[in-house]
Amino acid sequence: MESSNFWGNRTKSCLCLILLFAVLLGFYSNVFSLIPRRQTEKSQSPEAHHVQGRRESLTLSEGDGHLDSCRIPEVPRLLYPKAQLLKPLRVDVLVMTPWFAPVVWDGTFDSALLDVQFRNTTIGLTVFAIKKYVVFLRLFLETAEKYFMVGHKVIYYVFTDRPADVPQIALQDGRQVVVLHVGNYRRWQDISMHRMEMISNFSRRRFLREVDYLVCLYVDMKFSDHVGVEILAPLFGTLHPGFYAADRQSFTYERRPLSRAYIPRDEGDFYYAGGFFGGSVPEVYRLTTACHQAMTADQAQGIEAVWHDESHLNRYLLSHKPSKVLSPEYLWDEQMLQRPPLLRKLRYVAVPMNHTEIRSR
């Protein structure tokens, strides 16, 4: 009897010690697991926390305006023709670049389907009407209201040194004209080159908050047919009407190695027009900032690229491939070029003018 009590009591004591040891082991393991974490947190300087916060903020802001890269929009029930895999709609032109960017031609997209996908999108259009170029604004805006992003929210950002001369025109619902008063420059080349700087500055100051996409255009043009959301992409450029069928050796790239816009003769995809480019606001901000910085560096070296901001645009789009390329339908000059059969539509065309007279004032 005494022997059984002795072993029973001893067994209970051992069990209690084992349980106590297990509890203590769990407690200290939690404590020690916290030590490295706290040491890591203490070792991070306030600057490190600030950088991390900025990186997280940048990640969020970079997604702003990227309808293509955020989430796939839900499309309600629609009736539209089925795509025929073995019957391509265009076989006479290139419809896809080697880096899988669509080339937009008439017949390659369904406007009704795309309008639904981009139904909650706000598009900003930048246009510069400096000095006498303000005379082109009325026709530009009136034709834009007829053909540009019809049915979508649009903000026309008019950069001008003559705010009082900006015409008042009737606008569709959800559309507005915002006049941005800027200075002028003596030479038209300087106006052209400072365009990148001003778009960059205003992208950071307000465009990021106000619109999803930016479309950057020349003002001495008019819309003559549909230009809609089929053009929208994180980054897009437009084929120059004078070089869309040329080989790269014929492109008027900047060929002097001293310039930041330099492109060797054995490089180049397309020659892009300076009068029609755009994308999401973060991407346009990166493009215009890079081009402005490159032009500033050239200026410090006493060099000016052969075609000014257009030369730097082409240099940038060679290194940063656009996610969509617009065909010459989206920029054409009927006075200088004969329209080929492959151009079923002319959507945005040059207005006849006396360049010398306009640029001299």
From TrEMBL:
Pfam families: Glyco_transf_6. UDP-N-acetyl-alpha-D-galactosamine binds at F128, A129, I130, Y133. Keywords: Glycosyltransferase, Manganese, Membrane, Metal-binding, Signal-anchor, Transferase, Transmembrane, Transmembrane helix. One of its GO terms (biological process) is carbohydrate metabolic process. GO terms for cellular component: Golgi apparatus; membrane; vesicle. Its main location: membrane. The active site is at E310. It is a single-pass type II membrane protein. It is found in: Membrane. The keyword Transferase applies. Its cofactor is Mn(2+). This is ABO, alpha 1-3-N-acetylgalactosaminyltransferase and alpha 1-3-galactosyltransferase. The gene is ABO.
